[in-house]
Write a structure and sequence with these properties.
Chain A is mainly α. Helices cover 69% and strands 0% of the residues of chain A. In chain A, α3 runs antiparallel to α4. Chain B is mainly alpha-helical. Chain B has a domain of 235 residues. Classes of the chains: A mainly alpha (324), B mainly alpha (374).
Chain lengths: 324, 374
């Protein structure tokens, strides 16, 4: 039995990789839901962005143009969500469901039309992908005991979007809790009438929040297709948008906790890929299906309030009507 | 409140939403370089042009009637049950357990038992989110989404590790016994001289689905429980003052909803596949949302919307077979229907209300003049 094997560097390394899209999507949801707009369409927006980033990167050979296309496509879906749930005061949950299906259908439809490869994009090569960045002295530091390998393997050697995601955590915290914009954004999710009385546009603030959500989902999707993998395949988000949603509840809508929650769920995904390590460490086999379901089970337990209470923003899901 | 006459509310608004969704779908087909008119023709001949096509259309429609009714019942109680997919998966497990381990003498008894098993498993899977919503205040939408994923893991485990026959490669149960084979429409219609396609999967479950539509209508509009469910859905607080228990209504509505979603399994698992496979539900649980929205949560509306989606499903399969349009086109159409009839409802409703209001105001002065003349 070797419990330490569970925290093998290779497992932790893939934890970081797998947590990145979850983290970006989770922060995306955080902006939207803190402003009072429920978003169960994270999955669809990521999928849309994954396809358009891979498609544009494949056609132009530039991963940066791909990233831009991914962000733009995700924001287009955000626009639909905003139109339905803010402008026309429709049901935000139903709008999210529609967006998920729209993305699931359109990506395959367009992929088939553009590339004729059964709903996938060509594999990305060279400049079409985000390459790992080797941080300075990574090779030289490798010989330093303990810290050296951690620096060389775990901290160095990820694509730029991983570092962007990690920086987005303090960024989100600062924006939400240290700026006037953040105060207003949080207020609009708790008590929009008060914000309206103060002369700030509820509709405007909510659209900005939904827009930021689109940008972050766009980066998440682009990372999936151009960083984590080399190209788009059908349904490649595989429920990550919903895991991110689960992480958001797990984190109780707070940025730093979102980081820990997504790292935990990323770790669960990483360890699920290595059943040999689990068996070696624990001495018995853990069902893969149990590991797959664990993020969802944990979320249900948290939601049920058995381990601390998760209370969403108060005005979440309610369309704002002036002068009720 | 009643700006529009009832017919406009019930027929005009959904119809316009549907037309908008259809126009956008046609644009999508145009954009990928295909001819929308030819596509519709192909879909109509493929889905409705033969008894074989009809058999598939009605088979899919049967699934969607169950899941559409499931979403509708929850809607009436003001609850959004996204968990139809997971509840239908568990329903399939219920059917498989009932049919694999008990030797049934005849399909009629087996159908009754399988339906009960399916309903019980589906209801069980809805009961936990319902309880957590009613007692612990966890949001039912999130918990039912989570339960869809947990259901997939449960089904995967059961099929891979428990129910798979020894030596079999694919994660599926053994075939059910020959005695529990459900009569299909060919066998049902042959005695009255109609020669229905032998190969089509529509079966006696269709009749059960139609009976379920009638029963749900009776329940919602003709029983005290239905009144309580609707009052609770309209205003939880008012219902509370009227002495309607929130916990009871949430539980009862979700149990019925889950049972209906689970019952779908008598069609796809018992009627068609005759064994339980991994992706037996194929998204029908989610289509239930579109069907309920389009059918305005009324069983008759659900019946019509389910047949429309059955047509789209079979027509979409034909399109994928004969043209380069992938099956995913129907997912896009489904998304547009949900978007326009659900989320963008006000976009259609607001201008319509303005028109009706203007028309009424234009009529009103005339009547006053007439009264003055008298």
């Amino acid at each position: 039995m070797d419990i330490l094997a569970l925290f093998d560097l290779s497992v932790l390394d893939s934890t970081v990789r797998l947590a990145t899209p979850l983290l970006l999507a989770c922060l995306a949801g955080l902006f939207s839901e803190r402003a009072g707009i429920f978003d169960i369409g994270l999955e669809g927006k990521m999928l849309f962005a994954a396809f358009f980033s891979a498609a544009v990167a494949a056609m132009t050979g530039s991963v940066w143009l791909g990233l831009l296309a991914g962000i733009a496509s995700s924001m287009a879906l955000s626009g639909i969500h905003g139109l339905a749930s803010i402008t026309f005061r429709g049901n935000q949950l139903i709008s999210g469901v529609a967006i998920n299906f729209l993305a699931a259908g359109l990506t395959v439809l367009i992929a088939q039309d553009w590339f004729q490869q059964g709903g996938r994009t060509p594999s990305l090569i060279g400049g079409g992908r985000f390459e790992p960045i080797i941080l300075p002295f990574a090779e030289a530091a490798r010989s330093v005991p303990f810290i050296g390998p951690i620096y060389a393997e775990l901290i160095s050697g990820h694509s730029i979007l991983v570092y962007v995601a990690l920086l987005a955590v303090p960024g989100t915290w600062w924006l939400l809790f240290r700026t006037r914009f953040g105060l207003r954004l949080r207020a609009v999710g708790e008590n929009p009438a008060a914000v309206d009385t103060a002369g700030v546009s509820v509709v405007g603030l909510r659209f900005v929040a939904v827009g930021i959500c689109g940008v972050l989902c766009g980066i998440a999707g682009a990372y999936l297709a151009t960083g984590l993998q080399a190209g788009f395949v059908k349904d490649m988000t595989a429920g990550r948008g919903f895991i991110a949603l689960a992480a958001l509840i797990f984190a109780k809508w707070r940025p730093w906790h979102a980081l820990w929650a997504t790292l935990l769920f990323g770790y669960l995904q990483a360890i699920a890929l290595r059943p040999d390590i689990i068996e070696g460490a624990l001495g018995f086999r853990v069902q893969v299906q149990l590991l797959d379901a664990l993020p969802y089970i944990l979320t249900v337990v948290i939601l049920a309030g058995f381990v601390g209470k998760a209370i969403p923003p108060r005005a979440g899901g309610e369309p704002y009507v002036k002068e009720r | 409140m009643d700006v529009m006459p009832k017919w406009a509310e019930v027929i005009l608004v959904p119809l316009i939403s549907l037309i908008l969704a259809a126009i956008l779908s046609a644009l999508v087909i145009l954009a990928i370089g295909e001819d929308p008119v030819a596509a519709v023709n192909l879909m109509v001949t493929g889905a409705l042009g033969s008894t074989y096509g009809w058999g598939y259309t009605l088979y899919y429609a049967t699934n969607f009637m169950f899941t559409g009714l499931a979403v509708s019942v929850a809607f009436h109680a003001g609850l959004f049950n996204i968990g139809g997919e997971g509840q239908a998966m568990l329903g399939g497990l219920g059917v498989a357990l009932v049919l694999l381990f008990i030797p049934w003498p005849h399909w009629t008894v087996a159908l009754l038992a399988a339906a009960l098993g399916a309903a019980a498993f589906g209801a069980l899977w809805a009961a936990i989110p319902a309880y957590l919503q009613a007692k612990r205040g966890s949001h039912i939408v999130i918990t039912t989404i989570m339960f869809n994923f947990i259901a997939a893991a449960v089904l995967n485990y059961m099929l891979v590790n428990q129910l798979r026959p020894q030596g079999a490669m694919d994660p599926a149960t053994a075939r059910f016994a020959e005695t529990v084979h459900l009569p299909n429409l060919h066998q049902m219609l042959a005695p009255i001289g109609i020669n229905f396609s032998k190969a089509a999967p529509a079966n006696v479950s269709l009749v059960i689905a139609i009976i379920a539509c009638v029963l749900v209508w009776l329940l919602i509009w003709r029983t005290p429980l239905g009144l309580e469910i609707r009052s609770y859905g309209k205003s939880g607080r008012a219902a509370k003052y009227a002495g309607i228990g929130a916990v009871r209504i949430t539980m009862v509505a979700m149990l019925i909803s889950g049972a209906l979603a689970g019952m779908m399994a008598i069609n796809n698992v018992m009627g068609e596949a005759e064994r339980l496979v991994l992706n037996a539900v194929e998204g029908a649980g989610f289509i239930g949302i579109a069907v309920a929205l389009m059918g305005r949560s009324h069983p008759f509306g659900v019946f019509l919307a389910a047949i429309l989606f059955g047509f789209l499903y079979q027509g979409g399969a034909e399109l994928a077979l004969w043209t380069s349009i992938p099956r995913e086109l129907i997912v896009v159409i489904q998304a547009l229907v949900i978007l326009f009839t659900g989320a963008l409802d006000n976009m259609v409703r607001m201008p319509l209300e303005r028109i009706f209001l203007a028309a009424r105001n234009a009529r009103a002065p005339k009547r006053e003049r007439k009264q003055a003349a008298e």
